[in-house]
Specification:
This protein is an alpha/beta fold and about 240 residues long. The protein folds into two domains: about 5-175, Rossmann fold (3-Layer(aba) Sandwich); about 190-235. It is built from eleven helices and seven strands. A seven-stranded mixed sheet has the order 3-2-1-4-5-7-6, with helices on both faces. α4 (about 95-105) packs parallel to α6 (about 125-135) and α10 (about 185-210) packs antiparallel against α11.
Length: about 240
């Protein structure tokens, strides 16, 4: 039985039972293998842009006798995935900019699925904003700290989000830290907010010691905005 890290375990729990999974950037194929061993999904398509990781995934799949249930494909994003071929599309463990590129270039295919699960390593606010702008409804959020790093992840449903809520959903606080994480008072999010608050205060103190230039002034305003969002988010715990 494959043993997953905390991050991958939480991601696997977001996949709906009985669905066909497309794992984008599958690396070693651990999540599809784990979900099939748990009999949670019917089958999976494990995709990666690099041949090396995909070969390792294929070896693991063959060793466990799951070749009839997990297909491997070289794919740049979801470009090798057909319309409606997967119910659940998982994109995790890569930068937010790359995830946004995959979402945009594969928009019709991704919207033909039933759910989308994302775990950006950066630019989380931009990814959530994209989802809000394109009519997705975020249905689940979670967060974990592992090996000294914090990871946010969320599941969403295409074409279920209503434009009438667009301005509300675009709130920078929700984009950055997640409406559901905040409403749940998620303990890992609180730890992250306290950590980031200290970081921002330290940066501001250091900026005050430097000569006032246009660049320093802009940087200070940026950090003050970020600190303001952190303090606004922490109000959920007060």
């Amino acid at each position: 039985m494959v043993k997953l890290s905390k991050r991958l375990t939480l991601l696997s729990r977001m996949v709906t039972e009985g669905y066909v999974l497309a794992d984008v950037g599958t690396d070693h194929g651990y999540i599809p293998i784990y979900l099939l061993q748990q009999k949670k999904i019917r089958k999976a398509i494990a995709m990666d842009v690099a041949e090396g990781p995909l070969l390792r995934a294929k070896e693991h799949i063959a060793q466990l006798g799951l070749g009839g249930y997990i297909e491997t494909r070289i794919s740049d994003g979801v470009l090798s995935l057909g319309m409606g071929e997967a119910d659940s599309i998982l994109i995790a463990g890569m930068g937010g900019g790359l995830i946004l590129k995959i979402l945009w270039e594969g928009k019709p295919v991704i919207e033909s699925g039933k759910e989308l699960i994302l775990q950006p390593q950066s630019e989380i606010g931009r990814v959530r904003e994209y989802l809000y702008r394109h009519g997705y409804k975020i249905t689940g959020e979670n967060m974990v700290r592992e090996d000294g790093k914090y990871y946010q992840m969320f599941s969403c449903v295409p074409k279920e989000g209503a434009d009438r809520e667009f301005m509300h959903r675009q709130d920078p606080l929700y984009c950055r830290y997640g409406r559901l994480l905040l409403s749940q008072r998620h303990p890992v999010l609180k730890d992250y907010l306290l950590y980031m608050g200290k970081q921002y205060k330290t940066i501001l103190e250091n900026l005050k010691k430097q000569q006032e230039t246009t660049a320093i002034c802009e940087r200070r305003k940026q950090i003050e905005r970020e600190l303001g969002l952190v303090e606004q988010a922490l109000e959920y715990w007060r």
